[in-house]
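Project standup — Tuesday

K.O.: blocked on the structure for the chain from last sprint. Re-posting the sequence here as requested.
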Amino acid sequence: MSNPTSSSANQSLDDAIKAVSGDLTAAPATHQIDTWIGMLDITGPGSQGEISLELKNLKDYISTNDSANIAHTLDALGQLTTKAADEDVDEEVSGKLRRLGEALTKASTSLPK
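H.V.: unblocked you, prediction finished:
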């Protein structure tokens, strides 16, 4: 992630985990996705660029109500986020990234593919 303060990053991850448990196909989800994209550094290390691209895809699929591609993208985001957890050096952030990755993967299975 780009370089926000540690408490800010932790709160953002908590918010993301909570949001993924909600309705990701709803219009408010696109605002949350914009927030997440803004926190990532596209040219940053590790998976950040790939995650940013998938988030942009997710926003597009939500706007067209394309549930199959939403599910596929949530699964890809789950995998990338779990991968990012292994790239992060902060143990607390890594743990939250793993939980977020699991929540994204779980959310992907709740939609038709």
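K.O.: great, moving the ticket to review. Residues 1-5 have pLDDT under 50 and may be disordered. The first helix runs from residue 6 to 20.
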